Input
Amino acid sequence: MTILSDFTPNEMMTIAAARALSNEDVCFVGIGAPSAACNVARLTHAPDITLIYESGTIGTAPNVLPLSIGDGELCETAVTTVSVPEMFRYWLQGGRISIGFLGAAQLDRFGNINTTVIGDYHKPKVRLPGGGGAPEIASSCKEVFITMKQATRGMVEKIDFYTSFGHGEGGNHRERLGIKTKGPTLLITDLAIWKPDPETKEFTVVSMHRGVTRDKVQETCGWKVRFSDHLEETPPPTELELTTLRELQARTEKAHGGKKGH
Amino acid sequence: MAKFQNLEEAVAENLHDGDTVAFEGFTHLIPHAAAHEVIRQGIKDLTLIRMTPDIIYDQMIGMGLGKKVIFSYAGNPGVGLLRRMRDAIENGWPRSIETVEHSHAAMANAYEAGAAGLPCAVFRGYLGAGLKDVNPAIRSITCPFTGEELAAVPAHRPDVAVIHAQKASRRGDVLVEGIVGVQKEAVLASRRSVVTVEEVVEDFDDLHPNLCVLPHWTVTSIVQVPGGAHPSYTHGYYERDNAAYLEWDRISADRDLFSAWMKENVLGQGPEVFAERVKGVQA
Output
């Protein structure tokens, strides 16, 4: 398989996220980069992955990326479509989802996510859309993957609001709250792949994408970055991965009148 | 017993100033035509319940009809933020609104509890999450059997539910298919309901027995409004008009542009325009 040198940081992020998914996964998919990653996985190495969108579609296989969480194509290609209460009660709360895939407006080093407000909750500087399904995705899925583009305003020392709980203040904070699932186990950015330290649960860079420096990772992150002693380079996209992603996005753009599904 | 009416009568009879209302539809089947009629009738001081407030509540809030919103995700799906709702929260324009914020799981459970006649919903939720610190309607309850602490929220019991569906039979039974969302629960949780439908058919005799149907005696009012979900979509009839959602982002970004758009496209129109609007996106 040819390795391509011409790819964007965003493409690398999506493809690295796709690689983290396996054929056996049952994945609760968020719109945006997570949706692109899950569908690239399905169209390449994980054809039997089960994708679930919170609108109630289970086992969906869209030909284009949905613009919204409830596009018709998700229902038309699904194994079954259930009501929203059933989705949250039987499927998510029932513990039937292996991976919850979330994005973040603000993220801290312990994988806590804010998509609710910037500033004070009662007098917000910016009112963001809010959590939707995320508070329970973060606690009910067996593991949580997070994707986001690195920027100091997004990756912050302290988030303004705990929309979804990651590892809290680190260590065994989840267990102390009685949460039985693993929480965030992987963070994939446009520059690097991060995993939580087994003890402290602080996200640590384990792999940097080609051409990325430690300085670049630190400059775009609001906390002091820890790098693994065994730092690797993320293998660049293969021709199949990149072609699959680009064709998916071209089909999506055509279907949605110029708007990409991310 | 379901009554067949025109939209003006159905809204005037069922929605009143100060009511708690739930317009539902999860991306799919959003009752836009009915929301526009509420705006034309200027029904005010509404408490608006909805999982995803999106464009119709952005329009109602921007026109000053809402005093309170109970919600779990305030976004224009696939596009971005709700600019009129944000303007009301951040700047009090055209009036300030109270917000009660939940997660999707809490909202879905609260509707289900309302439909089941229970006072509250119990579920495993909000673990470690910040909303329970800012929303006093989120409490906890201890399981009497296992001792597990669970989240509890009050049941939704709206005065009125408003939904859009594919079909009604002559008798008034309502068929909802595709992404069914939380509409069945919203109707059963509410005291009254208004259902707009694409078409009225003789009966449902040839349909599969497991389809989602609201029996006629659970529905208050049925109105035939072809295209009534546009720019949302109706599975089997027409597709989502994504361009209109993108366009809303531009229109809603500016107060004057918003007001002019509402005057031209809502205040000065009737529900009959919806059939015309879906011609370009018919399935």
About this structure: Chain A touches chain B through 57 residues (CB under 8 Å).
